[in-house]
Amino acid sequence: MIFSFSLYFDLTIILALVLQARAVPHPVAKRSNSDLSLTAQLRLADTAIERYKLLPNDSDFVFNFTGTEQIPVATSQNWPALVDVGAAISMSQLPACSMSFLHLHPRATELFALNSGHILSEMVPQAGVLDSNNSQRVIRTDLRPGQVTIYPAGSFHTQVNPDCEPANFTAAFTSDEFAVSLVAEQLFSFSDGVIARTFGQSITGDDIKKIRDAIPSDMAIKVEECLAKCGMEKRFTYTDLNVPSIEALSVYPSGKKSVGGPVDLWDVIANVTVSVTNTGGRAGAETPQLYLSYPETAKQPRVELARRERSTVTFPIRRRDVSFWDVEAQEWAVKGENIRSVLGQVRGIRSYQGRSLFEQSDIWSLLLCG
């Protein structure tokens, strides 16, 4: 028993000495900050005086918004002088007839001040903020130069420039680390099932893909009504239509039989040319289209209907109809994801020019459209 007590006492003393030895302060090895970014060094500085030492040049306290191709926002990442200030700032403009993408700032409140121009602003605050009709409140403001609005952190918001001149603004943020979330793009990053259930199965499958593909990638989305008002919409004119006269052709082809019919079915019998000019206020793309209408003697099927009579029309679609010539593969190819069906009436086509193609009694008319 005495031996056991003595052993216990000795172990207690040893443990106490070990714990005491561990409690003795050890010198901390200093780590060099030279391998850290300037922003990181500023964040680790013990005092403001040390931070000033890390910014020895007067130019360190100036940020230039001009000539930058990136988002024009000064943050602690691209302007280290903002470290520990708790703010970021932007100076930019919203082009004429443009809308900023619907977005939010997850970590900062934004103060948006208009310097020149005109801005229509919409902001949806957090859930539970209701209007007089007990519906989600939407705060709409009509900003003029010298006015400021506020977007609390996490609120959905956008700005629209409804005028023909750019709107210049300054925006301040209550965090030196700028962040933005793009509502449409991030929402449709979820799986199709999540999106379908979120919208009560009102959109599914191809509809989801169509919306996902249609989300603009530009920071500023063009407002078509405004573009038309300001004469800035894409506008194309067709001039100098040249339709060469074609000599009479034999009623039936006479070439050697081949896949798809006689080889002379593929002969080029005329080259129709036209000049296309963009007379609008911005760059754009146009797809000229050329249509041929058959003469009466060709007896193409038409739908003859009495008043209030109804008939079902069937359009058989062949593989050839949905194929295009792949120049690289030298084969007729089908890419189903790019095929859409468009049904309309001739009177709905934007007709630019019309000409007779054959100088014969049976007139084949040509219609050039865009």
TrEMBL record:
One of its GO terms (cellular component) is extracellular region. Residues 1-23 form the signal peptide. The keyword Zinc does not apply. InterPro entries: Cellulose_deg_GH3, Cupin_1, Fn3-like, Germin, Ig-like_fold, RmlC-like_jellyroll, RmlC_Cupin_sf. One of its GO terms (biological process) is glucan catabolic process. Residues 286-342 form the Fibronectin type III-like domain. It catalyses: Hydrolysis of terminal, non-reducing beta-D-glucosyl residues with release of beta-D-glucose. It is found in: Secreted. GO terms for molecular function: beta-glucosidase activity; manganese ion binding. Its EC number is 3.2.1.21. Residues 52-209 form the Cupin type-1 domain. Keywords: Carbohydrate metabolism, Glycosidase, Hydrolase, Manganese, Polysaccharide degradation, Secreted, Signal. SMART domains: Cupin_1, Fn3_like. Its main location: secreted. Belongs to the glycosyl hydrolase 3 family. This is beta-glucosidase. It comes from Aspergillus tubingensis (strain CBS 134.48).
